Amino acid sequence: MSPNYMRSFSEGCLRPPTVIGQFHTLFFGSVRMFFLGVLGFAVYGNEALHFSCDPDKREVNLFCYNQFRPITPQVFWALQLVIVLVPGAFFHLYAACKSIKQEDILQKSFYTGFYVFSVFLRITLEAVAFWLQIRLFGFKVNAIYMCDVGALEKKFNIIRCMVPEHFEKTIFLIAMYTFTVITVVLCVAEIFEISCRRLGFLKT
After folding, report:
1. Ordered domains of the chain (ranges, CATH)
2. Between 20 and 30 A from 62 (CA), which of 3, 5, 31, 33?
3. What is the protein's major site of localization (predicted)?
4. Cβ-count burial of 58 within 10 angstroms (0-12 exposed, 13-18 middle, 19+ buried)?
């Protein structure tokens, strides 16, 4: 791919054809990624090291932590961010290959429909991630986790484990839910903006 295509692709990703789309890119790229990258590491970075059970043995701690966290929140949210970016990136790659200018996207029905489809796909992926987050993490992190160690052939099948910094993790969970909701609202608002422009209620 030539440098011109790469430049058009990067400009399309950073400067979508709608005002709300540009705000979404700013919110998504700066606030959400910064929150996950910096604060997420501070809250979850040493969780496995500080997760302890009774009896406090390495094999028991590891077994129960893997049961408590089938997937770490940082990995889940990083995958969510990457997957949600794919529809928009695919559209802007197509626009770059076809030499479509950003100001022309909302002028032709096919390009507009393709772009709106990518936004709808974004909404769907965010909704699926929201549902998965509820199934995996819930809305609250409890201080005590009851671990089933029957597979380790221990004397007691259920043991108590202490979850470090559970209150901070609860706040972080609520924040990530909030970011997902904000992103979905912005995507819906972007579709509304596109509809208003196509109907002539807003100037291009």
Report:
1. 3-10+19-197 (1.20.1440.80)
2. 33
3. membrane
4. exposed
- The predicted model gives 9-23 an average pLDDT of 67
CB burial of residue 158 (10 Å; 0-12, 13-18, 19+): exposed
Mean per-residue pLDDT of the chain: 81
Pairwise CA distance, residues 108 & 112, whole Å? 6
- What mean pLDDT is predicted for residues 194-204? 72
Handedness of CA 1, 83, 74, 175 (dihedral sign): positive
Q: Give the closest residue to 64 by CA, choosing from 152, 126, 125.
A: 152
Residues 41/74, Cβ–Cβ less than 8 Å: yes
